[in-house]
Amino acid sequence: MAHAFPEDELKPVSCEPQTRNRENPADIGLNDVLGNYSVTLIDSLSTLAILASDPEEQHARHALRDFQAGVKALVELYGDGSDEKRCGSRACGFDLDSKVQVFETNIRGVGGLLSAHLFAIGDLPIRGYTPVWEDDGRGKSVLIWDGVLNYDGQLLRLAHDLASRLLPAFSTATGLPYPRVNLRHGIPFYQDAESGVCRLDGTSSDPREITETCSAGAGSLVLEFTTLSRLTNDTRFEDLAKRAFWAVWERRSGVGLIGGGLDAESGQWTMPPLAGIGAGIDSFFEYALKASILLSGLSPPPTTTLTTPGMHDPQSYLQVWQASHSAIRHHIYRSSNTEKHPYYAQSDLLTGAPRYTWIDNLSAYYPGLLTLAGNVAEAIESHLLFSALWTRYSALPERWQPVGNMHTAGQPYIDPNFKHWAGRPEFVESNWYLFRATGDPWFLHVGEMFLRDVKRRCWTRCGWAALGDVVSGEQRDRMESFFLGETAKYLYLLFDEEHPLNKGDRPIVFSTEGHPLVIPDRLRTSSRSRSQSETGPPQESRDNAEDAPTCPAAPSPLPLTISNVANSPDLFHAAALAQLHLVPINPTRSSPLLEASGSSPGISLATVQSPSNYTFYPWTLPQSLIPPTGISSPIQVPITSTLTFPNLNPPAADGDKGGPQIIPLGALQKVVEGVLINSLSNIRLSMVQQSKSLGMAGVPEFRIQSIANWALGRDEKVLVSREAVAAVSPADPHFTRVKDLEMVDLVVDAFGIAEDPAGGQDDEKGKVLAEWDIELPENATMESSWSELQAMVLSLLSSTLAGTADHPTLTPADVKRPATLTRHIIPAILPTGAGAAQLPAALDPTTAEDPAQLPLGHLPISTIFFLDSTLCPPHRLPASIVRTHNILVLKRGGCSFAEKLASIPSFPPGPDALQLVIVLSVPESRSPGENHMSAGGELIRPLLDEVQRTPHGVERREPLAMVMVDGGEATVGVLRGAARSVGVFDEAGKLVEVKQGGLTEGGGEDGRVGLAVKRRYWFESMGVPIGNLIML
């Protein structure tokens, strides 16, 4: 205030104000934030309000006086936001010719004003401050701040003014706001962007204005804008912010990740398409979880054309957080299976494949968010690494590389372009959340380390400087507003355990700028249902209680050492990754020893000396917290292997073998499932061993993690063609093809009925694969429908049944609907046990070509009988069916697999006789556990625990081959569409058969339904399966 006010920031080294760079409008590092509206004061008001609850009365009184004086200073500069006093000495509200970033202006300006307003009127607590509304003598209710100001909501009106000036940025078709806006003129630079006019005077230095925003910038408006809408009854802000949030989420990739940059006009992700948890993405996740807290118990605003009811549901935001965290754990998290200590890196947005390993300073917020969500163990694990890095560098570099390169001899290093520390709060913010959740004194010592290092490295005679280099300690002449608005705030709350904000039990959230926000209780009462009593909880709270994140109880202090964190078996894993063993034992920690003076707080040896050897950390950790018999669990060393294939291409005609051994053109092809290898010549596959992903947990398998140094996602498959495999020796133990004895694929050519071009027909009717549609009366059964179908066929359109009370009415199918032949691949599982039989040679050829490559309509087997029943005793299948059909399809359930096979009569083998039984595992036949497996694409293996027998109990001489497939609607429809005949047992136990020639006649040999079995193979390397390598 003494050296820079009313400007935006202070230069702490030169003791001068920092203003916008008007000479260089492209200097967005300054101009995005500094809007010429005293941003540091606005950003610091909530910190002053928090300091006003200090346990020392004098300090609290001074802080409250400074808070109120700061509010008065703002009002004098920018007016009080009312029509009568709209203008101040500097501007009328925030009518300023400043082009600013929407995100930064919202979190610093709008959020700071709203939080300060909530403190001023008592909706956020200040110890000893009880606001009393009084009449000012002119009929207006005010809070009288003696000798300072009569407060009547000036900050709220100024917040409304500032937020209103951001609204032009939301005029996009995508719902994503433009990244920047002029507080006076709106967005003329975007409106003229296509014609290249980027400045108000008509000049342009670029072909068009940058319209790229980021997920954090577009999706981190919900907290401030919703609070503003609820306090002012102006729903525009809440609607637009929520619309922008969901516009980001709807653009997530197929693997559930969101990227950093996306274009506000097109909605497309920008290049490179990276996903992570840090810069450009961070606060989107934060606002997903915190919005579910802030919105809890609130009635939704009226639905408009901009929003839907689901956009207002707090449970929806919680589900976004849960889905996001799940995707992060699966694709971005680098686990201890492959790293010395886990961390979160950068992955490919579309596939989840690892792309970069750097860790940025902003990512230090994530442990705090995990703590808020109740994932305390993961939060501690993540925070350990940031604590180790701070111990090593006495600050956090903006970007650190845990994986070295040839220039660093393979050792971790600081990115040379990101050596600075800007005074960021994320690390101490997470430290505060973790201490509140665990009470572990370890986090107090982390906070003490943070405080000592900032004190000795960043103090200047008029402020706190950022560090230009965390190693050398070079200071930068800038103090961003968040240092006082966030960093100092979280540090203070860490050590004041009795602060009201540390004791409350209300849905108070801290914004991404560290501003506490809450929707006052008086605005939450309307969320109760009219049918509920005033004492009962809202129905939504009861419904969602089980899904809400819960923070686990803090563990009991350990004897002698107290700290559970200091006794963590992986404590030294983070130390090893950060290389704390390279820190000198008695350093001066990049700081001289100084006597206390007006320009220095004083640096003594005790300020810089560690009680330990720095492998215990934080470096302030006392001996009393160091475990006397501390043991580190061993660091896992991943088992890796590399398969390098030679040049498998035939030599040139002239015999020349020279030239580089390169991968042939077209050898690799990107497909939806992953990568297709058409030639293994000169290919190098890098593999890592891990536990089997499905089925037998704990059984090791290899996963190909990269092809020719191109990293793959965890779920990406490597598909290799038969031609590529044929060039490799089958006796090579490093690359062995093994027949899968559990799973096969059914290749099916089936007819489906195209949608009625005239419309108006029920989609379900299209599933009846006959020449007639059946209109069933209410409560009619499937058996009765097949009875009527039989009667219809036999009577050839006889109308004697029409209109009677006991039979449905028959109507001709629309003959205009054409039938189309399509190919389908259906996974099937083979049975096990004494009754399991091998596939017959006709279905399991050893030298035939891949059936999936046969032309459409030319599969070898076309006689399929679809039994729309379970085939259980006393029902028996007629002998005519098994003699004239190669495939029998029936439903699971009602009896055992052995009983089903025993209901099939014996028959002489022959090319036209039954060869395979396909059992449909329909949903009603599965247990809850099987339904869960089916949802994940797994099938349970059928057990035939006794030898197969005929209906007369005689052991079957030629056992029947059987497979089981998922019995969902899609599979049932395909197999029904491939059947020559469909049958069902009527109520008398008689089989009613309907031939489906109507769908195949006229097609001839070019349009025949059919089925074939395709064998699956897996690959092994030295006896270990390669899980994600599949042969086509």
UniProtKB/TrEMBL annotation:
GO terms for cellular component: endoplasmic reticulum quality control compartment; membrane
Quick one: a GO biological-process term for this protein?
A: carbohydrate metabolic process
Subcellular location as annotated? Endoplasmic reticulum
What's a Pfam family this protein contains?
A: Glyco_hydro_47
The protein's matches in InterPro entries, at most eight in alphabetical order, are given as: 6hp_glycosidase-like_sf, EDEM1/2/3, Glyco_hydro_47, Seven-hairpin_glycosidases
Coarse class of the protein's main subcellular location:
endoplasmic reticulum
Q: Which cofactor does it need?
A: Ca(2+)
- What is the name of this protein? alpha-1,2-Mannosidase
Tell me which species this is from: Friedmanniomyces endolithicus
